[in-house]
Design a protein that fits this description.
single chain; about 350 residues; alpha+beta; T-fold; 9 helices
Length: about 350
């Protein structure tokens, strides 16, 4: 399964090894997960890493949008709206949080458009090139499903819009990063790097220097640039290069504009840096409205989401970035045309 609407990107760990680094990989959320623990005995590092991976597996099975899960069962109920029922406390809190952040980004990040994602074939591990029925696209757009259509009080929910089908692919990886970071801190782990398919959160540092990560080039193997990630910061990218298909020479990616029902085609990738107690979640969901906003709205969407460090690469491979991001990047591909946007 791939719990990502996105992504989309791979931000890669770079730098030399260190004798006190403990590393473990797994495959969760339909993507590769890397956990690196610094300055801990191996037994302690292994114990906390195993716990984090078990939590990731739990979330994978609770938040899966189309295989048996708490979320999939909720979607079955929502399709029969009007409906009411109860949610787990965790899922209720997740949906309330995602609703607030979706509204903040003018609903361009819209986890309620699962029917459109399904129609385009992206609720699957393999993508079959096809053109959906345009009338069905228009019907789903007109139905205007939003998370705010699901009214939540405590653990009780109700809804009257049967077009709502929730897909948390643009939220779950970031949420999992925060869960992992909070747990590691509670266990006294001060230095770690957690990478879920390119969404990365940093704790502390290693070898007396910040963690260094690279941003995947959207059209070539390897990184396009690197930067240092400091304690509590998270980096996330939305891109058109992992979950997509091509038809008649046109690329259709999984990032769908809820206003039109069509995949976004004027952006290759957006990378952001998020800060604060929910940096992981913000790194995942905040990149979506910036990506979907495109050439005319990306800067506005970044401001609305409270994101100051942004790199956007358009469909021609040109890079636009904020001054705050420009001051942190070290370009590896010197040929990329760039412009700094106030």
């Amino acid at each position: 399964m791939r719990l990502m609407l996105a992504l989309f990107l791979a931000v890669l760990l770079v730098g030399c090894g260190h004798p006190q680094l403990y590393k473990q990989q797994a495959y969760v959320f339909g993507t590769l997960v890397d956990i690196t623990i610094a300055d801990q005995p191996e037994a302690k590092a292994r114990q906390v890493t195993d716990h984090v991976l078990a939590e990731f597996d739990r979330l994978h099975h609770e938040l899966h949008a189309w295989e048996p899960s708490d979320l999939q069962r909720l979607n079955e109920q929502l399709a029969k709206s009007p409906v009411s029922g109860t949610l787990s406390p965790e899922l209720a809190a997740i949906l309330q949080d995602a609703t607030r952040d979706s509204a903040q980004g003018d609903w361009l990040f819209n986890p309620a458009i699962g029917n459109l994602i399904h129609l385009w074939g992206f609720q699957s591990d393999t993508f079959v090139p096809h053109m959906p029925d345009k009338n069905e696209i228009e019907r789903l757009v007109k139905a205007n499903p939003r998370l705010s259509d699901v009214h939540i009080e405590g653990t009780h929910f109700s809804s009257t819009n049967p077009a709502v089908r929730i897909d948390l692919g643009g939220y779950a990886k970031g949420y999992a990063l925060d869960v992992a970071a909070n747990y590691l801190r509670s266990q006294g782990v001060k230095n770690a790097l957690i990478n879920i398919g390119g969404n990365i959160i940093a704790l502390g540092q290693h070898d007396n220097r910040p963690w260094k990560v690279g941003i995947q080039h959207p059209r070539q193997a390897g990184a396009i640039a690197t930067l240092e990630l400091h304690d509590g910061e998270a980096i996330g990218t939305s891109g058109d290069y992992q979950r997509y298909f091509e038809l008649n020479g046109v690329r259709y990616c999984h990032l769908i504009d809820p206003r039109t029902g069509w995949p976004v085609q004027d952006t290759q990738a957006v990378t952001i840096i998020a800060h604060g107690p929910h940096a992981g979640t913000l790194s995942d969901e905040s990149s979506k409205p910036i990506f979907i906003g495109g050439a005319s709205q990306w800067r506005e969407m970044a401001s609305k989401m409270g994101i100051t460090e942004v790199l956007r690469i358009d469909s021609s491979g040109r890079a636009s970035l904020t001054q705050a991001m420009a001051s942190r990047l070290e370009w590896l591909d010197k040929a990329v045309p760039t412009r700094i946007v106030p």
